[in-house]
Predict the structure.
Amino acid sequence: MLANQRVTTEVRVRYCETDAMRIAWHGNYIAWFEIARTNWLRAQGMSYRELEDSGVYLPVLHIDCDYRQAAQYDDELAIDCSLVGYTGLRILFGYEVRRPSDGVVLASGKTEHAFTNHQMRPVRPERGLPAVHAMLLAAQSGTVE
């Protein structure tokens, strides 16, 4: 598998995620990013739970979301997630939300995270999680694992 392939997560806009006009509330895109990011990590052979169980957390430092067109109630959506950057201390993911039925891109964005311990102090994966560090370096370079 190409380590940095885009991982696609499918969701359907639920009624509770919409306003009176049946338009998806803008904050849901951030939750959809999180679902896609979690699935990307899982596809790489690790999970948030495993990271947290090892004492490593990935708090969000920054979020960008560019809205292009509204998702509506009952739309099927595909959220693509890929690794955009990894510095050894920070990680950057990119996202694209599209409607597969017509291929229209509804939104795109990025999230930046830091590797920290439970006290929110920075940690470097290469010191405590060498396998995670190696996977992220491979994903960033696009090499085959």
